[in-house]
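In this supplementary section we document a worked example of the pipeline. Step one takes a protein sequence of length 244 as its only input; no multiple sequence alignment statistics are reported here. Step two produces a three-dimensional model, which step three serialises into C-alpha cells for compact storage. The input and output of this example are shown verbatim.
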Amino acid sequence: MTANTHIALDLLKKAHPPETASAIFTDKVLHKPLLLRPTSPDPNRQDARGQRRIQRLRKKEKARKRQKPKPLSAKEKRIMGIYEIPKELQKYHIYAPLHRLWLAYIWEILGMVTDKQNWVTGQVAGAKLASADFHGAKLEVVRSKCVSTVGLKGIVVRDTKFTFQTITKKNELKTLPKNHTIFRFHIPQPDAVSDTPVCDQTKDVSDEDLGSNALVFELHGSSFQHRAIDRATKKFKQRNMTEL
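The serialised model returned by step three reads:
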C-alpha cells in the first residue's frame, strides 16, 4: 500500500479485479452521502410517536364529550338532598292548586268529563286508579298498624315505593308507610266544584265542596307498594285481600 492509496481500495483490490475494485470504491466510499444529525431537534417538529399520542388523546377527549353524564346513585341523591322539601316550602296553601290539578286529571282518567257521566263502576275504576299518579291527591289514613298515623290527612307531595309523603293543614310534612295501612280519598263530581279555570284556582277543595254524590275509595297500601312510574306500565291482577 502506497502513501497516496486509500486503505479501502487496497483491500478491495485483493478481493476483486482492479476495474471492479475501483468502481466499488468510487460508488461506496468516495460518493457515499454523509448524513449529519442536528445537535438538537427542532422544537416545532414532533416525532411520529408523539403525534400518534396526541391523536389518541384528542380522540379520547371527543369520545368523553359525546358520552352522557353518569346518573347519580341513590346514595348521592340522599347526600345532596334532591328530593327533600325545604322547610319554607312545607306550606299547605302551596299545594292546594296541585290538588285541584289532580282532580281534573282523575276526572279525565275515569271519564267523568269526556263522557258526561256522573257514575263510575268499581271494576272499571279500580283498574284505572291502580295505575294512576297520586301526586296531589288528598289522602286520609283510616286504618293502620301504626296507630299514631290514623286520622292524618294531607296532600301527597311525594309517592315513593313504600311511603306517601303528605302536607297537612298544620303545614307539617308527614311520611306515611304504605304497608299495613288503608287510605281513603274522595273524588267530587265535576259540577260540584266551581267552573273557574283549574290553573287559576288557589282555594282548597274543602269537605263541604265534595257534595253528597262524591266518590269514596279506599286504598290498601300493602298492595300498592310500587313507584308511580312503575304503576303506569304494570298490569294488576285481582287477588284476595288477606288483611280484610
